[in-house]
Amino acid sequence: MRPRVQEWHLSVQDGDDMELAKKKCVPCEGSMSALGPARVADLLSQVPRWQVKPDEGELRKRFQFETFLETMAFVGRMAELAEAEGHHPDFCVRYDVLDVTLTTHAIGGLSENDFILAAKIDQLRQLKDR
Fold first, then answer.
1. Is residue 13 predicted with pLDDT exceeding 60?
2. Within the chain, how many helices (H) and strands (E) appear?
3. Cβ contacts of residue 64 below 8 Å, gap of 6+?
4. What is the spatial distance between Cα 43 and Cα 27, in angstroms, rounded to a whole number?
5. Pick from 1, 2, 7, 3: which is nearest to 112 by CA?
6. In the chain, what are the domains?
């Protein structure tokens, strides 16, 4: 059986054309490296309106809601998703505004997991808007 860290590297290399939201976050360890700028740019193109500041190693997006209760309901759904994926966002709620930040603390930067979770968070929002 391969160590999990090798499986993660294979998923990044072999599954590039697979839709991010269909992938599953996988455990990573501190011995892995953060994604390079070219890979970040490629993955960023797949998660609309998410932003990366070059020197921060974080993926960010602001969501706007109609009410505080709607915001908190979305946070609850996002928390359930994060638990299921084993990858957890940082977030800040200000009444009807939700700021979400994704990074992989274990490697000190961005991993494919951050983009997978971003795509799945976007799907949660799209489901609500239908």
1. no
2. 4, 4
3. 96, 97
4. 19
5. 7
6. 4-129 (3.30.1360.20)
